[in-house]
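Hey L., structure's done. Input below.
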Amino acid sequence: MVKIRPHQLNHRANFGAIKEELNPNTGSNSKTFVSEFALWCAFRTRTINQMFAAKAAGLEDTRTIAVRHNPKVIETYRVQIDGDLYKIENISPDDTNGFMTFDFITLSKITGVKGG
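Output:
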């Protein structure tokens, strides 16, 4: 069981999608992030073994967050944390009946909204 205390969930993660919206000033469509729901999260540090495993899997430029278990979180969502936009690479859910269960979500940073 992972020991995460509620005070460690100190970042707000907005889960949503990239959608095209009409810019009223120019009349053209632009891609923007639209949030559907938000969860508190904590960034997790990796051990040396986890870093080597991530590199072997091609995920060396990723970050991992922990959120309280939520079945609404799916891999098609984009995640916005502290103004940065991320793509979900992997979800490791803990769907046991425990009181304090956490899902670990591996994220890769999106450098621009286009193509996200």
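The CA atoms of residues 17 and 78 lie 5 Å apart. The chain is about 10% helix and 50% strand.

-- N.
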